[in-house]
Structure formats: structure tokens, C-alpha cells
Specification:
By secondary structure, the chain is of the alpha+beta class. It has four domains: about 5-45, no CATH class; about 50-75; about 80-135 and about 275-450, 3-Layer(aba) Sandwich (Rossmann fold), CATH 3.40.50; about 135-270, Jelly Rolls (Sandwich). It contains eleven helices and 20 strands. The protein has helices spanning about 5-25, 35-40, 50-75, 90-100, 120-135, 295-300, 325-345, 370-385, 390-395, 400-405, 420-450, and strands spanning about 80, 105-110, 140, 145, 150-155, 160-165, 180-185, 190-195, 205-215, 220-225, 230, 240-250, 250-255, 260-270, 275-280, 305-310, 350, 360, 365, 390. The strands form four sheets. A six-stranded mixed sheet has the order 1-20-17-16-2-15, sandwiched between helices. Strands 3, 6, 7, 9, 12 and 14 form a six-stranded antiparallel sheet that branches. α5 (about 120-135) runs parallel beside α11 (about 420-450). It starts with a helix and ends with a helix.
């Protein structure tokens, strides 16, 4: 059969089928049924959600699961931050500042008791923040002999030291203790030297800016760095002298002459995050209200202080033998937080509570009897004041956990059952940073998905 006849035949068959579909009764005839033309050519009705709707449903389910993971940590994990009114936006202004630290440098000050001596805990916080947001330098170094695990300072002359905390015999009278509550009194010429302490754990920090702090000037003060001499006249509550240094400086020295109180030297990078370690042996953290309001406010403003870490409570525990002593201590801490909030309104405040501490009771090492209740009360007091709380006691494992930290291999706490070893301080500081950055990740997650 020729090709043309085949085509005509096929189209004829199709035409006959089309006529049957068009005119065959819809209910059928003699048990036979044919499909209707509108059924054949009509677009099929979709069943269920469209692909776009399905994709959005899956996306929302994933986001909900991600959010639940964050919230599960924030609500139940011992390493979480206890926030005022459980407000997960509490750190948002700090996170914004951290993200812009390369354009507008900011400062973090870690005040604490002997748990943070030698830069323990602070050193890890500094390195983690600077790694993520930029910055360099060891921060504040006292104008006297002092050393951390990474950096040291020395003075050519031993000067009388005064501080606003601890032993009252070291009080100077008045309130001009500087922003760190600690100073040396100059009445001669002194050369201050700053140098790296090399160890196997990390490279020594570098810096590009030196800031000298002094107050209570009784005459002109001469500050000399490598031939660059600055004369400072009396009159200011806080005298600040800055020198720009070559990149990646690791050593520096300056010579100071006159009669004044020297508050310290800041060794920082040109931008990013600057972190100060301020250990205060014997302090219970209730000394801030003894410091001059003008000096603190001016320093916090000029240095753009955006985070204050207050790590106290352990030194107060042995003397808390009555309910009144506990309530008095809590009231004192509330006063300090409110005072600092007034002087540093842009700063977020985190109170880092005491660790587990053991004493001898009936011949056995046991947690101080009032410590668990004190920690619970601290959480409430601190957050009600509008500050955040981080619970080392809970992170360690709670009551009786100190014994396990002392018995660990290597030991994570010392034989006094109070202080962390270097290894223990490292574990605690890493947990603090991990928790803090989880809140930052959640902030970024919220910002990304709230914008969609």
C-alpha cells in the first residue's frame, strides 16, 4: 500500500474515533463506553499541593527543626546563658558591634577573681573573638611587674601599689583608682617594659597601638616612647596618651616622669576586638561602686566597651554562713551591675558565677553547703537586673563535681578544690566560647530567615 493511502487510512480511523467520542452517549450503549473529547484534551486536575508548595513545606520543616535545635540548647543545656526575661535578642547589639569591629574597634573587659589570673580563661576568649572578628594584642598590662601565660610587663622602679578590692590596707583613699580598680603611684622616673612570654601552646600576641592611662596628676607628666615625648598637664580625671606603632610589634617600652597614678598600658591592634584581663585576687566583685564615675564613664565611652564579663562569687562563699550574709552579697552584686549599666549603657554584661568548691565536712570533701542555693539566687538576681548569667557550677556538673575535676587525668582543678588548673581553665573557656558563638549563629540564622 502506498504511503499516502496509509496516512489517509490512519487519519480516517482517528476521525471515526473522534466522532464516536463526541457523539457516543455519556452513559454508554450496550455496555460500551467511550472517553469524552473534553476528558482527553482537558489538562489534568492536580491532586494535592503544587511542587512549589511542597518545596516550601519542606523548607519550613527544616527551618523549624533548626530552630528547635537552637531552642533546645537555650532552654535546657547547662552551658546556656541565662538571659533577662529569656530574651534571645539580648546580645544582638553586641553582635552587630562585633561584625563592625574592623571599622569601629571595640573593647571587652574581663574582671574576675583569682580564677582568671595569668590570663586563664580570658586568653581563650580573646583568641576566639579576635580569630572571628579581627584584632590583636594582649590588651591591658599593669604599670608594674606582671605576667600572663602569653605576655609580661616590668618596671625599672618598684612603685607603691593601691587597689579598690581585697585587703583594705591597700586602699588609697578617694575614688580615683582608674578603670581597672588598681594603680601604682609614681613620684620619680620609671621605664615600663612589655615583652612576650613564649610557650608551646601559642604564638605571642602582636600589637600596633600603645595607650597609656594615668590620673590624679600633681604636676606635668612626661611620657616618652622612642624619642616621641608627650607632656600631659593636670586637670583631667583620666589622662590618655596614645602612640601608633609598627605593624606586628611584640615588644615595647616607655619612660614616664612626674607625680601621678599610673593605671596601666593598653597594647592593642589598630582595629577589631580588644580584650583586657583584670584579675583581682580576693575580690567578691562588689568594689565597682568605689570607683570614680567620671573615670569609668569616660574610659568606657572612649574605648567603646561593649562587653563586661564579671567573674566573681567564689571568694564570698566561705564567709556565707547565714541567710543574711547571702542576701547581703546578692544585694551588693545587684548594686554593681546597676552602677556599670549606668556608666556603660552600650555594653552587655555577663556575670560568670562561681564554680563548684569543696570544703572538708566530717573528714570528707563536700560542696560548700550554701553554694547550690547561692548559685540559683545569683541567676535570678543577675537576670532581674538586666544582665546575663553563665553558670560554671552547672557546666562542671553541679554539686560534688569538683572532686571529679580534681581526680581527672590530667587534673582539671587543683588540690585546693577551688581553682582550675590550666587544662581545666581551658575547658571552661572553650565551653563559654562555644556557647557564646552558638547564640551568635542563632542571631545570624534569625537575621537571614527573618529577611526572607
Amino acid at each position: 500500500m502506498r504511503r499516502g493511502k496509509i496516512v489517509v487510512f490512519l487519519f480516517g480511523v482517528i476521525a471515526m474515533l473522534a466522532l464516536l467520542c463526541a457523539f457516543f452517549p455519556a452513559d454508554g450503549l450496550w455496555g460500551l463506553r467511550f472517553a469524552r473529547l473534553d476528558d482527553i484534551f482537558a489538562a489534568p486536575e492536580p491532586e494535592g499541593p503544587s511542587p512549589e508548595e511542597l518545596i516550601e513545606q519542606r523548607r519550613q520543616a527544616i527551618l523549624a527543626a533548626e530552630r528547635e535545635e537552637y531552642l533546645a540548647f537555650f532552654q535546657t543545656d547547662p552551658a546556656r546563658f541565662y538571659l533577662p526575661e529569656d530574651d534571645l535578642h539580648y546580645f544582638d547589639s553586641l553582635f552587630v558591634a562585633l561584625e563592625h569591629a574592623k571599622e569601629e574597634p571595640l573593647r571587652v573587659i574581663h574582671y574576675g577573681d583569682s580564677q582568671i589570673e595569668e590570663g586563664r580563661i580570658t586568653g581563650t576568649i580573646r583568641s576566639r573573638l579576635q580569630e572571628r572578628f579581627g584584632g590583636s594584642g594582649p590588651g591591658m598590662m599593669p604599670a608594674r611587674r606582671h605576667a600572663t601565660r602569653q605576655f609580661g610587663s616590668n618596671a625599672s622602679v618598684e612603685l607603691a601599689r593601691y587597689f579598690a578590692f581585697g585587703d583594705p590596707s591597700y586602699r588609697a583613699g578617694g575614688r580615683l583608682y582608674g578603670p581597672y580598680g588598681d594603680f601604682v603611684r609614681l613620684d620619680t622616673t620609671v621605664t615600663l617594659s612589655f615583652y612576650p612570654v613564649r610557650n608551646r601552646e601559642s604564638e605571642p600576641p602582636t600589637f600596633e597601638r600603645l595607650t597609656f592611662l594615668a590620673g590624679n596628676l600633681h604636676s606635668n607628666l612626661s611620657v616618652n616612647y622612642r624619642g616621641e615625648r608627650v607632656q600631659v598637664e593636670p586637670g583631667e580625671a583620666l589622662s590618655i596618651v596614645r602612640f601608633e606603632l609598627p605593624d606586628s610589634t611584640q615588644r615595647a617600652s616607655l619612660t614616664v616622669s612626674g607625680y601621678a597614678d599610673l593605671y596601666g598600658v593598653l597594647l592593642d591592634g589598630k582595629d577589631g576586638v580588644r580584650v583586657d584581663n583584670v584579675p583581682m585576687r580576693g575580690s567578691g566583685g562588689t568594689f565597682f561602686t568605689r570607683l570614680d564615675e567620671r573615670q569609668l564613664r569616660e574610659f568606657y565611652e572612649q574605648e567603646n566597651v561593649r562587653l563586661l564579663l564579671l567573674q566573681f562569687g567564689g571568694n564570698s562563699m566561705p564567709s556565707m554562713k547565714t541567710d543574711k550574709s547571702v542576701s547581703d552579697n546578692l544585694a551588693g552584686i545587684r548594686r554593681q551591675i546597676r552602677y556599670l549599666q549606668r556608666l556603660a549603657p552600650k555594653a552587655r554584661i555577663v556575670f560568670i558565677g562561681p564554680s563548684d568548691m569543696a570544703t572538708t565536712i566530717s573528714g570528707q570533701r563536700r560542696t560548700y553547703p550554701r553554694l547550690p542555693a547561692f548559685v540559683d539566687s545569683l541567676k535570678v538576681s543577675v537576670t532581674q537586673c538586666g544582665a546575663a548569667y553563665w553558670d560554671i557550677f552547672g557546666v562542671m556538673g553541679g554539686e560534688e563535681s569538683m572532686k571529679a575535676w580534681v581526680a581527672a587525668k590530667p587534673p582539671l582543678a587543683g588540690p585546693d578544690y577551688i581553682h582550675f588548673t590550666v587544662a581545666g581553665a581551658q575547658r571552661v573557656s572553650e565551653l563559654f566560647c562555644d556557647a557564646f558563638f552558638l547564640y551568635y549563629d542563632y542571631y545570624r540564622w534569625r537575621r537571614e530567615h527573618d529577611a526572607e
